[in-house]
Design a protein that fits this description.
The protein is of the alpha/beta class and about 100 residues long. The protein is built from three helices and five strands, in the order E-E-E-E-H-E-H-H. The chain is globular.
């Protein structure tokens, strides 16, 4: 698995896949976002930890670093609420790894 320094925002490349961890749960599951082509266009998924590690370790899959994940999260919120500052406070803290 590669650690992505900073995926470019707004550029679509179908060969790139991104994983952004939302939460490592105590029950052994991992909540994460998965995107193809553009880190800002993602779906939320959940897998057992071993299955997640296998999934995230597939060739071409990049685990987003904190800065890139925060930037993508803010852009997603701006799609929903107009600006990142107008999103509910609970959403601002939803992208933190534990």
């Amino acid at each position: 698995m590669q650690d992505s320094p900073s995926p470019p925002t707004g550029s679509f490349n179908p060969a790139r896949r991104f994983v952004r961890v939302r939460q490592m749960r105590d029950d052994g599951f991992v909540e994460f976002d998965f995107a193809i082509g553009d880190a800002e266009l993602s779906v939320e998924l959940i897998l057992p930890r071993a299955a997640f590690e296998a999934f995230a370790g597939l060739p071409g899959t990049e685990r987003m670093n904190e800065d890139a994940a925060a930037r993508a999260f803010r852009r997603q919120q701006s799609y929903l609420y107009g600006t990142p500052d107008s999103a509910p406070e609970s959403l601002h803290n939803n992208n933190q790894e534990t």
